[in-house]
Amino acid sequence: MGMEDHKLKVFCTVAETKSFSKASEIIHLTQPAVSLLVQAIEEIYETKLFDRASNTVTLTPAGEMLYKYAKEILNLYAAAEKNIGEITGFVKGSISLGASSTIGNYLLPGVIADFRKTHPKIKVHLLVGNTKRIVELLNSGNIDIGLVEGDVARQKMVVEKLIADELVLIVSPLHPWAKKKSISVVEIAKEPFIFREEGSGTRQVIEKYLGKYKITPQDMMTSLVLGSTEAIKESVEGTMGIAIVSRWAIRKEMRYGTLKPLSFKEEKMLREFSMIFQKNAISSHAVDEFLSYLKSYPFERLLSLPE
Asked: pLDDT of 134-151, one tens digit each?
């Protein structure tokens, strides 16, 4: 993997995000550095590759042509690396994962730690962001696999289900409901409720479920809107209200009894955790190993509590 493919990756990222600033964020380079790399390629071919006229950056006909080849070249590099790895029979290399917040913070750290015990030579990089960000990173080729919660449009990607996730109501052990196992969804409009911010995958699922029972966010007594699950859990422990979170997010608290989970009487509030891949991308040997590990991982066992 040399200097050339780094340049091509930068070029492809600008082409896909249609913006130098977005591309620089994704590749962790400064904007001037991205511009310089693109200029260097333009000098090689002695032609403009992008129209920079408007706010968005668009490819010129020459740019379109190079983009098509660049994608093929990057795929060939990946294929070469993979096949050489297979001949030498040595699985090393690195994997870049992107995961949305519930998965990245609560589910993957344990899986990655276990994977590393049997594959010490493989480096795993994990980026955590909201679902929208993970899709952007995948489309620009900066991660090999994305793991997201909630719905993703399948247009440019391959989407595979990983596991189902249950969202539960959490209350403080001091709350009158703490003794119950389940509650009717209509009851929750009577209590101060803590929401995640707009655009969070968890919040979308909650709103869709409540909508089925004709409950809108306006009907709820919203006491706080917080930007992270950790902040929400703290507030519920501090009796500031009740909230709905993934069962994955409260494994510790359930063990120590600092939060009580309740299911809904009507039906479970479920969503899918999905894996997303680029169409036609060639995955490395290391990525293949991690994927088969992930698919056969005993997730259920981690969620069942030791009695």
From this structure: 988 888 888 999 999 877
Task: Note down the domain range covering 14.
Answer: 3-86
Q: Residue ranges of the alpha helices (H) in 145-215?
A: 201-212
User: In one letter, which amino acid is 105?
Assistant: N
pTM, entire model: 0.68
Q: What is the pLDDT of residues 50-94, one digit of tens each?
A: 988 767 789 999 999 999 999 889 888 878 877 776 676 555 678
DSSP string of 246-291, one letter each residue = EGGGGHHHHHHTSSEEEEESS--EEEEEEEEEETTPPPPHHHHHHH
Q: Which two tokens stand for residue 196?
A: 């995640």
Q: What tens digit of pLDDT does each residue of 176-190 get?
A: 999 999 999 999 999
Which helix or strand (DSSP H or E) is residue 98 part of?
strand 93-99
Q: Please give the radius of gyration of the chain, using alpha carbons only, rounded to the nearest integer.
A: 23
Q: Strand pairing partners for 14?
A: none
Q: Which residue among 86, 106, 127 closes a domain?
A: 86
- The number of distinct structural domains making up the chain is 3
- In angstroms, rounded to a whole number, what is the distance separating the alpha carbons of residues 263 and 183? 7
Query: Do 43 and 96 reside in the same domain of the chain?
Result: no
User: Which amino acid type is present at position 278?
Assistant: Q
